[in-house]
Design a protein that fits this description.
This protein is an alpha+beta fold and about 130 residues long. Helix content is about 30%, strand content about 30%. The longest helix is centred in the first third of the chain and has 16 residues.
């Protein structure tokens, strides 16, 4: 997924993943595709529920969900995701600007949020 444009199947696969995470009790508070201009790679940033504090627990539980639902997720895998804390400057900036409670695909481009440059993002959920 090192393409400049994120295409529909990746967005839909990420929405399905967030839904599966909800069913498994991971309940992501935020999920957004974020483009890194330096590496030219999209990553699915996930801010998990407050009770999930450790990256290891998050990735272990996520790996189970992905492996059990491979056919629903297309090319999406755990390597496409990134555990992001609610305290991240971009998340803190976004929480004052946008709220997405269900699942959507809100495009957000070329923004500086608390000193963090967010070149391109597709917000699927923002309930922080």
């Amino acid at each position: 997924m090192d393409q400049k444009l994120l295409v529909g199947p990746e967005i839909e696969g990420a929405k399905r993943l967030v839904g599966l995470m909800d069913k498994a009790g991971l309940n992501p508070r935020a999920a957004l595709w974020v483009y890194n201009e330096d590496t030219e790679i999209w990553r699915l940033w996930i801010v998990p529920a407050p009770e999930i504090k450790e990256k290891l627990e998050f990735y272990r539980r996520l790996a189970v969900i992905v492996s059990e639902n491979r056919e629903l997720l297309g090319t999406l895998d755990t390597g496409s995701t990134e555990f992001v804390k609610e305290s991240h400057p971009a998340i803190q900036g976004l929480k004052g600007l946008i709220r997405v409670e269900s699942l959507s695909d809100v495009r957000f481009s070329n923004n500086m949020l608390n000193g963090f440059y967010l070149p391109d993002a597709i917000i699927l959920r923002m309930m922080v």
